[in-house]
Specification:
about 230 residues; alpha/beta; TIM Barrel; eight-stranded parallel β-barrel
Amino acid sequence: MKVFLDTADINLIKEHAHLIDGVTTNPSLAAKVGANNKEKFRELIVQIMVAVKGPVSAEVISVTYESMITEIKEIERDICCIVSKIPSVPDLETISHLVIKLPTTPEGLKALKYCSEREIKTNMTLVFQPLQALLVAKLGATYVSPFLGRLDDIGQDSMAMLKSIRTIYNNYQFKTQILAASLRSPKHVLDVAEIGADVATLPPELLEKMLNHPLTDEGLEQFLKDWNEK
């Protein structure tokens, strides 16, 4: 299972770059680090793509099909322009990491079809039921992002939904990758790995929890103590 970092904090991304395969962002995360306008956000996306050399999801803020298409074209144009000004960065390789993040709404599905026909990579977000996942896979999404923690918050069984999506995708050999999102605990990560999610996107604090165990610290302390007592 691949691990993406769910943040727009470039410092945290660089810190964990050796552990992660990609990054997901959204307007809320971008605003937290001051990238709250188009120019700053797109410059940040390029910084992230250079840092991780893997898929980076950039979310549209438009809600209608026509405005989404306009925004997608602007994102691609602006990022190409920014990358072209960095001599040390290969244009095509970096731009190939761009993934357009779209909402799973009727308008978002129209935009997904547009992107699929043009081989633009996509991440369909805010998925809360298996039938949404079925539709986006049929339209050729690169990733589908079921939001698991938010379902648990309202008393629904998020892992049952994830299992259903995995079964549907296996039944029809869909190429869309399941990107488990809205994960809240190490147990969530373990569960989605066992079910067979292709990717888990984690907030930095959750990734850090996965690195730690009290017995690891205790064991290391004992090893050092034994060595120093020689």
